[in-house]
Design brief:
This protein is an alpha/beta fold. The chain has six helices and six strands, in the order βααβαβααβαββ. Helices cover 33% and strands 16% of the residues. It has a six-stranded mixed sheet with strand order 3-2-4-1-5-6, sandwiched between helices.
């Protein structure tokens, strides 16, 4: 009994490009962010086409687990649109036909950490306006984010652990909140959450197994992979 999570941080926004805290402000993807999401979708689609087309006995190994049976996304627009773009790319085939649509379920528990008064500000602006504050005034603490993400994990686990084989789930969220899943996979607490970097449109993979969501074992199989954003020609999109 278990699940494999394909963890995707949303594509870039104008705030990301400017180095501003977004938190739970509903900032949309930029044109570059949409391009990033499409590139990740193309990477996943190509991997699954290769797996499906490989003849038996050729020794072909699946490059990525999946395809996913469903997707969950934060209800903030930048994550929801990233998930929709990936799902659309996975649905369309290169021969013009269509695969079964990947359902995308909105899960508000996956929202980014609320940064309160810091939202919309750069790091320098935060230092100038709140020199005495180490935590955002009016925002969430990491323990609060951890509790929320624990509820998100329970929701996904309970929906997808009835099958004998681990279900592969696409989860599209945010750089702050998704790190809680990585900490859980490694068996460490929220004090380690700042030790991971997740870039825009990055892919990470966390595997979980066991009989109870509170006592599962896990491991990180891939972390902050952005190979799909770097073309052979060197074009940046």
């Amino acid at each position: 009994m278990g699940i494999t999570l394909l963890l995707v941080r949303h594509g870039q926004t104008v705030y990301n490009a400017e180095g501003r805290y977004q938190g739970q402000r509903d900032i949309p993807l930029s044109s570059h962010g949409r391009w990033q999401a499409q590139r990740l979708g193309e990477r996943l689609a190509a991997a699954y086409r290769q797996t499906t087309a490989a003849p038996a006995g050729t020794g072909h190994s699946q490059p990525l687990p999946g395809p996913p049976v469903t997707a969950y996304a934060s209800d903030l627009g930048r994550a929801a649109e990233t998930a929709a773009l990936i799902a659309d790319t996975l649905t369309r085939r290169t021969d013009g036909s269509s695969a079964a649509a990947l359902p995308v379920i909105s899960l508000p528990l996956l929202r980014e950490r609320s940064f309160g008064a810091w939202e919309g500000l750069s790091i320098q602006e935060i230092k100038e306006r709140f020199p005495e504050h180490q935590e955002p005034e009016g925002g969430e603490t990491w323990p609060e984010v951890w509790t929320r993400m624990d509820a998100a994990f329970h929701t996904i686990w309970q929906q997808h652990t009835s099958r004998p084989e681990p279900s592969v789930i696409l989860v599209v969220g945010h750089g702050g909140s998704l790190r809680a899943f990585l900490c859980r996979a490694l068996g460490v607490g929220h004090s380690h959450v700042r030790r991971f970097r997740l870039d825009n449109a990055s892919l990470s993979i966390a595997e979980f197994w066991g009989g109870d969501p509170d006592t599962v074992e896990g491991r990180v199989a891939l972390l902050n992979d952005t190979a799909h954003l770097h073309s052979i020609s060197g074009e940046s999109g």
